[in-house]
Write a structure and sequence with these properties.
The complex is a heterodimer.
Chain A: E1 23-25, E2 32-34, H1 35-40, H2 56-63, E3 70-72, E4 76-78, H3 87-98, E5 104-111, E6 114-121, H4 132-148, E7 152-158, H5 166-185, E8 190-198, H6 200-203, E9 212-215, H7 226-233, H8 244-250, E10 255-256, H9 259-272
Parallel strand pairs in A: 6-7, 7-8, 8-9, 9-10
Antiparallel strand pairs in A: 1-2, 3-5, 5-6
Helix pairs in contact in A: 4-5
Chain B: H1 3-27, H2 32-46, H3 51-58, H4 66-73, E1 74-79, E2 92-99, E3 102-109, H5 115-120, H6 128-144, E4 148-154, H7 161-165, H8 168-180, E5 186-195, H9 196-200, E6 207-211, E7 215-217, H10 221-229, H11 235-241, H12 246-251, E8 257-259, H13 270-289, H14 293-305, E9 310-312
Parallel strand pairs in B: 3-4, 4-5, 5-6, 5-7, 6-8
Antiparallel strand pairs in B: 1-2, 2-3
The chains are: A alpha/beta, B alpha/beta.
Bound molecules: zinc ion.
Chain lengths: 280, 330
Amino acid sequence: MLNWLRRPKYESVERRDIPAGLWAKCPRCAQLVYRKELERNLKVCPKCGYHHRLSGPERLRLLVDEGTFQEWDADLASEDPLGFPEYADRYRQAVQRTGRPEAVLCGRGRIDGVPAAVAVLDFDFLGGSMGSVVGEKVARTFERAVDLRLPVVTCSASGGARMQEGVLSLMQLAKTVAAVGRLHAAGLPFVSVLCDPTTGGVTASFAMLGDVHVAEPGALIGFAGARVIEQTIRQKLPEGFQTAEFLLRCGLVDLIVPRAELKATVARLLHLMGAGEVVG
Amino acid sequence: MTDAQDRAARERELEQLEEQLAQMRASGADTADLEARVQALREAVWRHPSPWQVVQAARHPQRPKLGDYLTRIFTDVVELHGDRLFGDDPAVFAGLARLDGEPVVVVGHHKGKDTRENVYRRWGMPNPEGYRKAARLFRLADKLGLPVVALVDTPAAYPGVEAEERGQAEAIARSIFTLVQLRSPVVVAITGEGGSGGALAIGVGDRVLMMQYAIYSVIPPEGCAAILWRDAARKEEAASALKLTAQDLLELGVVDEVVPEPLGGAHRDPDRAAAALHEALTRHLGEVRALPPEERIRCRYDKYRRMGRFSLRPAHAAAPSDDPRSADVR
Ligand SMILES: [Zn+2]
């Protein structure tokens, strides 16, 4: 029997858990679910409540009011600054497979009517990893939010910094954090939504600097990878380690919000933090 | 024999000769011949080191540690303890000291000299309270207008259960957040291992210097090789691919200056290595100190804002987009 807190391994960004066909097998409860029903239920398993991962565009559709999203910087493309083995090929494949140019979608839109700047990481694209383009687009999102007096909502789903761009990826932590500082100085709110999975360099930068941290149920959130920790301490990890519920107990997230309530909750938080007053 | 094995063998030979030389010097024997041999071999092995050789120098057990630099570069050192929230982390040093007679805040990763001390200091791998102690001292520097000198030498932030429970990621992010907004001048030196986020947490400054045989990487070469080729043994190739040497990072615009070391590594002459680092710290601190705080913060922002490489995709080459504006999940 599957342990319901323990997350399935994600060796591949292809969503094997939802094969093409009429039926999908839930990776947590192993039951077969009618795909249409799963889609209708926002990709939350109707049997056990497991929140399937969403792609970047799916996440945007969930969060941003229909017809209000204006994308920013869709034309920024990654280079291969280190000439890293296999990077150019893997990047091209990711573009072809996802039909998207990078691992983040940024822009402005309305969330239940509240204007906001939004950055959504896309785990489907090279594991949502943060390289130069992701760092640049996230930083620009915060800077534009300051110029336009908008609050910022980020949705993170990332394995961390992008190895293939080496230390340049690491520097994106500093770049994005510096941009969060500008928003902070401008007195504008920042809601960080932590989706499955958010780990490594993204957690250790902008994602953990929200005024409010909202997590999806069961999401894996942490800094170090479970395998690295197990190898270091030579012990089995505790039940539910690095889940959203674990982080709530540890005081690291504010709220765990089921997907169906996410948009309304974010909008409510933005209103309470004074964002609704700002006309975008 | 592979190139790496050959280099390793010659490095072992060099270390044996160096040991012999030290013994002969101690006994007062004539060392001229041996000195010439050692010098020639050093040249041969280290004139053009491979990235993997540099990794080994950066991790050399005898490489000068924070303590060696503290005693040689600073005076009047007072270590301060605790993050005022949870505890004190022996993997991070934080304190007050004088540099060229002027008070400064010094923060650094604290590796030990032997296994016993390293167990105590977790090989310089901080827990969240280490970063929070550092951030506390950064804020003190800000309050008092003191410059900050940060010495970076860590394999990584500690990967442990308690570190995660206490918010390792938040502690790192918050420390960076504090540094980017600090009114004080901040000069950073990567002296040994710059292990990813664990290093960057105290490694953001107006100037970032890097010792000649230090390394700075987003992932250890072993981990990179394991991911890329499912074979940690291909670490030499990974070390080359990651562009983790000081010269690489100077070219990528990540560090501002490479501080020269004695040929073959700082452990071969710690005094000379410390003197070079001291000179560079003094010079850079003098330069950034001359700026008004607001200007300094703006320059620091621009410095990190510029980092990274990307291009504009021509419109016709843009990938067909699954337009999120026109669709609805329902
Ligand atoms: Zn299920």
